[in-house]
Amino acid sequence: MSENLLKPKFFSCTQSTELAEKIVKEYGANLGTVIISKYSDGEFQPAFEESVRGRRIFIIGSTHPSSDNLMEMLLMCDAAKRASARHITAVMPYFGWARQDRKDKPRVPIAAKLIAKMLETAGATRIVTMDLHADQIQGFFEKPVDHLFASTIFMPYIKQLNLENLTIASPDMGGSKRAYAYSKHLKCEVVICYKQRLKANIIAHMELIGDVQGKNVILVDDMVDTAGTLTKAADLMMERGALSVRAIATHGLLSGSAIDRIENSKLTELIISDTIPLKRESSKINVVTCAPLFAEVMYNVQNNTSISDKFLM
User: Fold this and answer.
1) Is residue 127 within 8 Å of residue 119, measured between CB atoms?
2) Predicted local distance difference test score (pLDDT) of residue 144
3) Hey, which of 53, 174, 195, 255 has its CA 20 to 30 A from 206?
4) Averaged over 135-151, what is the pLDDT?
5) What are the Ribose-phosphate pyrophosphokinase N-terminal domain coordinates in residue numbering (predicted)?
6) How far apart are CA 70 and CA 67, in angstroms?
């Protein structure tokens, strides 16, 4: 087998081109060419403009709404499978639809499992993603899943802030495990927000478990959507005597008026990764790239070397 045949190829879905370019630059490679043909009714067809036969290929694309982003990933996996790619690794920095990971009321889907099966049917032989909304989503796959932790990229940022009286906070009970992991590494205290919702994205009541008086607080979460929870938590903590409140969220969905809400809140800053393109610039939003992390993991996957240190805090 020739050396050239062993080299991987890299392709990007439309929505993640900027991040994909950063990743492959870190890897020391170039993006392959994909042409997207579009029909007048909105249907589209991706086509690889170079051979992928016998290669490991990496298809990079987050699957945040609209559903076209997920559909493009599926179609590209299917195209690669039918073009005789040897391994098809779906690199999904943000795994969309992950909030539907269980039946929390009657007659609803488990969308995360459905998407796992769709990806496998389309031809994905491996999944690389970061900060799933729920760890157990890995169990929905019959193929290997490399679930990376964004703490790898956020921890250096936190340390360079040199904050005294640091406290880590979780914006809800579900994120307490993540908050405790950060606090263990930073050797600081933890507080938790207890919230009750009227319905999705609407909070009826929020209470604080723990003391933030005289503390510099950092809220940690896997995603920020409407920013309602984070801004309400920041307001509550400042009322309880916090010196400052920052927030770290891996995936910046920032839908609707989320950015305006952040700008008008008591948050000092919001730190996010670039798994999802930022809709517009804001003086309160700082973006930390995840490209070096994904490039290193992809290199190790290609060369069959360990990536276990990227699963640990």
Assistant:
1) yes
2) 96
3) 255
4) 95
5) 9-123
6) 5
